[in-house]
Amino acid sequence: MDSNIVYLLVPFGVALLLGVPVGFCLGLGVLGFLFFTNELPLNVMSQQMYSAAASFPLMAIPFFIFAGDLMNESGITTRLIGFCKVLLGRIRGGLAHSMILTGTLFAGLTGSATADTAATIKILSPSMEKEGYYRDFTAALAASTGVLGPIIPPSALMIVYGATVSSVSVGAMFMGGVLPGLLISLFLVFVVARISKKRNYPKGEGSMTAAELLTGLKDASLALVMPVIILVGIRGGIFTPTEGGAVAVAYSLIIGLLVYRTLTFRQIFTSAVNSGITASIIMLVVAASAPFGWIVSIAQVPVHFAAMILDFSSNPIVILLLINLLLFVVGMFLEGAAIVLLLAPILAPLADGIGLHPVHFAVLMCVNICIGMITPPVGVNLFVAAPIGNVTMTQISRAVMPFLLAEIAALMIIAFYPPLTLWLPMALR
Predict the structure, then answer these.
(1) Kindly report the CA angle at 284 between 281 and 288, in degrees rounded to 5?
(2) Backbone angles phi, psi at 156, to 5 degrees
(3) pLDDT of 140 strictly over 80
(4) At residue 371, does pLDDT exceed 90?
(5) Which of 49, 194, 197, 356 is spaced 20 to 30 A from 306 at the CA atom?
(6) ∠ CA 375-378-380 to the nearest 5 degrees?
(7) What's the mean per-residue pLDDT of the chain?
(8) pLDDT per residue over 8-50, tens digit each?
(9) DSSP string for 88-116
(10) What angle do CA 256, 234, 104 make, to 5 degrees?
């Protein structure tokens, strides 16, 4: 391995420890390497950044973010929550179970963990507090269900992975994320049921009527159709993932402007600006990681890393556990897109070498990274949920532990039972 790699890693590590945003950390590492080694011209950085950002598949990211924001603004998400309350409000801890179902459905609309976390806690936390739910429990549950955002399609994280490891189909990853996402939801249900029984959380009185069910289903039906359109369209070859993002935006505009008539042009403008800011943050990380990853590659870091793992053990189970442990630890400190861009080119060949299907590993990596969104000290979902839920980081970090353990258990099933991930992509190819 080239010893000059320290000039890349040291500035990156120091900036990261100082709290500098990840995109700038990556750029500082590249500048440090180019300045101190004089091995490559400075214009390599700009060339690599441009080539990474000028990627057609990545255009899907701002489209899906924009579509999710439009759905929030038009009130579609509120109708979904109302439907979930109708379905689950009469069981013990019904509002908490409604939050899980809401988060699962939101994941099929936005593809964003932070957006789903913020939406569910903003809308449901006032009602839950009135019914006696602990604030830290509500905030932790919202953060935990937000994890589903980039797992159940559409997923910006999977789009980034597909752009980084070009041999893996984004459409196949989308389909592969459905059942793992539902498994995580099921594990969260078990945790909520146990806590609700222990704390005697309330349940609604009376029974659900057919009229209530039909009204709720009618209100939510148009929102529930969108993920089906996107998945069938992409997997059926009707449109690409990027075109699917544009279809999602068009569908959201039609529903908000012409059907519900709750969307104003001012809201559209605000959504466009907010979505542009969010997408630009992701694209900065994508662009800055390109020269960083290129230098790591020419220094043969992936080759040496794979050799180090294989020297430690040749057992596929041990290697898979080590990969998951690495991703889990890195997920405590780095943002998801940065992890994919830095580690996917290193880990994907290693996973292929031990016989993992590329789609299975891609989904597994994305799930592991998403779980990192609720792991202290840099759990982004915790940072979103804590201030909205009016709790401290210490409180939410403690309350999230049962949900975190449940998601880790689900991760192990996903890792060691490939059919859970591969059945749907194979059945619909």
Answers:
(1) 150
(2) -65, -35
(3) yes
(4) yes
(5) 49
(6) 85
(7) 85
(8) 889 988 887 887 887 888 889 899 998 888 877 888 888 888 8
(9) HTTSTTHHHHHHHHHHHHHHHHH--HHHH
(10) 60
Amino acid occupying residue 269 = F
Instruction: Find the largest Cα–Cα distance for the chain.
Output: 75
Place of tokens 């214009």: 43
The predicted structure's pLDDT at residue 204: 66
Encoding tokens for residue 2? Answer: 């080239």
Question: Does residue 406 surpass a pLDDT of 90?
Answer: yes
pLDDT for the residue 199: 92
Supply the DSSP symbol for 256. I
pLDDT of amino acid 368: 95
Name the amino acid, one letter, at 359: V
As a whole number of angstroms, the distance between CA 135 and CA 139 comes to: 6
Structure tokens at 344: 């996917």
CA distances in angstroms from 377 to 112, 125, 382, listed in the order given:
20, 24, 9
> How far is it, in rounded angstroms, from Cα 218 to Cα 289?
45
pLDDT > 70? residue 382: yes
Cα distances (angstroms) measured from residue 392 to each of 37, 139, 248, 332: 45, 10, 36, 18
CA angle 287, 288, 292 (to 5 degrees): 120
Long-range Cβ contacts of 260-264 (<8 Å, 24+ apart): 260/74, 260/75, 260/76, 262/74, 262/75, 263/70, 263/73, 263/74
Distance CA 102, CA 164 (A): 31
